[in-house]
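I am going through a labmate's work and have reached the protein record below. What it holds is a sequence and that sequence's fold in token form. Please read both lines and tell me whether the tokens look consistent with the sequence. Do not assume that whoever made the record got everything right. Thanks in advance; the entry in question is below.
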Amino acid sequence: MTALDPVRDVAAPKQRTDWGAVRAIMRRDLAAVTRSKAVMLPMLLVPLLMLVLLPMSVALAANGSALDVTKILNMLPGRLAEPISLVPNNEQLIILVLGYLVAPLFLIVPLMVSAVLAGDAFAGEKERKTLESLLHLPIRDRDLYIGKLLVSFIPSVAVSWLGYLLFCVVANASAWPVMHRAFMPTRLWAVVILWIAPAVAAVGLGIMVRVSIRANNTQEAQQLGGAVVLPLVVLAVAQTTALMLSGIRLTFLAGCAIWVVAIWLNVRGARAFTRDRMAARL
């Protein structure tokens, strides 16, 4: 009677996810990510620039600006322009720019961070020559895949939420001479940050993890993934401001649609992932 192969035996289908194994994969990958300057620098510096320095410069410029936004509001349908037209004239520029126009940045950031981390998920293992040892770990394929997803998803959402907190502090402080009150956060922004931003990050993961499986190194994964992620960035920039001007209900429904796409992509990816296919690419 032959002994069972430990990896095959553990990989037998079970109903429950082994969260201990998932956490072990996450700790292992987070340690590798924190040691990589090529991953950490863009993940921290770009959000800092986009979510803090850019809004601060916009608010400071708006403080001393006499720009009339009436012409901009006249270009919008009345229903979309109403939330801004209701505030005093000297506050309209700040509300328009910091309350609506910078919204796409908060979807680009989680998408960008998730793409960077997910691109490193398997391609980075190949580049560091650690993939073979990873494939021989005594855990199931599904647990390995979930661990790789979460180690990219959680930091991308954390960076987005932390960036928004910093944005609120900077925006309120910079615009105080005009607003004389804290105008951020709002319920509409809560929907964008807490509901849509994680969904966008999950969509990026569903794409980039599968790209990372096929790529031979991180650079190749980023190049291949960029061809797919870039149209999503353009779409986010084009649609987010219009969604926010349309109100909470439509914004929430848009988030639901994004979550459906994200779940579909990631479930398909988990079902298609096997270590046999990964080993064949070594």
About this structure: The CA atoms of residues 143 and 242 lie 39 Å apart. Residues 141-179 form the longest helix (39 residues). Residues 1-13 have pLDDT under 50 and may be disordered. Residues 17-280 form one domain.
